[in-house]
TrEMBL record:
Key words of the record: Membrane, Transmembrane, Transmembrane helix
Source organism: Amycolatopsis coloradensis
Protein name: YggT family protein
Membrane spanning stretches: 6-24, 31-49, 61-83
Length: 84
């Protein structure tokens, strides 16, 4: 159970870290940024572009914030079923 919850929290953390880095204007050429981006984009699954908005900052918040919430909720549901 704890492992499942930890993996979900790790995925959510990666999404949130990427979101904060983009919103803060991190250097897109930096190696750490590229590494986090390479992890965050596939983990976002189907969320990017689901809600088309004109504000790029709001788009990042929706795309990666919803993906982070998704991972936390999914890990919680799976952990509850595994505990039974």
């Amino acid at each position: 159970m704890r492992v499942i919850t930890a993996v979900g929290a790790l995925f959510a953390f990666i999404e949130l870290l990427y979101m904060v880095m983009v919103l803060a204007g991190a250097n897109a050429g930096n190696g750490f940024f590229i590494f986090i981006q390479a992890l965050a984009k596939p983990l976002a699954l189907f969320w990017p572009g689901l809600f088309p908005v004109s504000d790029p900052n709001l788009a990042v918040i929706l795309d990666y914030g919803l993906a982070a919430a998704f991972w936390v909720i999914l890990a919680g549901v799976i952990a509850r079923f595994a505990a039974r």
